[in-house]
Amino acid sequence: MNVKLKPEKYLKYLVPINLFGTRRTREILSQNPTIIPLREDSKEIKITIYDYNAESIEVYDAKAVSECFQFLSRHTITWINIDGIRKADVETLSNYFGVHPLIQEDIMSINQRPKMDEIDNILFCLLNMLYYNPEKNTVEQEQISIVLGKNFVLSFQEDASRDVFNSLREKLKLTTSRLRQAGSDYLCYTMLDLIVDHYFLVMENLGDQIESLEEEVVRSSTQRSLGKINQLRKEIIVLKRNISPVRDLINGFIRSDSDLLDDKSTKYFKDIYDHIVQANDLSETYRDMMINMHDLYLNNVNLKMNEVMKVMAIVTCLMAPATVIGGIFGMNFETIPWLHKSYGFVAAVALMLFIPIGMLVMFRRRGWF
Asked: Domains in the chain, please, with CATH?
């Protein structure tokens, strides 16, 4: 039977840089706002247009951004979603819909902090959609830019293969849904609400990982457990970094006096604010749990070391009488009691045995082990 071994599958666990995730650390910390990163244009883009009102809805799959221009003059609500970002397409569409160049730069940015801006009667927000990768046990992020204008919403996503808006698309098909009855501000609210709600799904997965890791640390702490603790701490950093600024983003919508936001929409954004505060508090709890778990790991290691040292100390104490007796009878003197007696050896061995037994009884009574 020929078995083909794959050493590279197992050798990666022997490399400390993979065990403790230092590459992940480099990814998390390599964000310098003073350096303008160069975003590569997507090879393919997908443009989906939802044009609707209370009575009807039309869905288009556009091949070019120029096909979106006709919807600006309509009196319906239009949602233009672009998966895949190209600089030329972003500039062309933004210029036609009156989006300020500063907002265009933010759309093209990479690793941008979640933010909200209001420029020239346009509301803009940028944040990250979060996903949990069960294979790598990591939190992945995708930047999304949302532009709210009069009767239109533009959204720019990086990845065409996934998002959190499937339920939104289903609601748009229902004539009785509030989305169809409300304006573009409610559409923007729904998109933000779905993004924030999905944060809790990611945190649930992290919570399961923390729970299982806590049981592992309590039962048997190993060096691999320390590696898992460090990895989870880094994922919580990613989570915290993306969730915390969203609170200010939502607060910007609540305090905004823009005509694009209906007064009735304020209570809906307050609901998102409550959710994001709760998510932020939960992420703080996770961080505290990981700190406590790290302390628990160190305490377990110290406890094991103390147990080893206690056993070694007890063994040393039990061997001390035999060492002393053997040393006495091994001295080079001509006259030593019982040295030339037939029972001298038996007496020495008996002392070497009974004295340690007596010490064990005494240690046990005092509760030393």
From this structure: 40-300 (3.30.460.20), 309-365 (1.20.58)
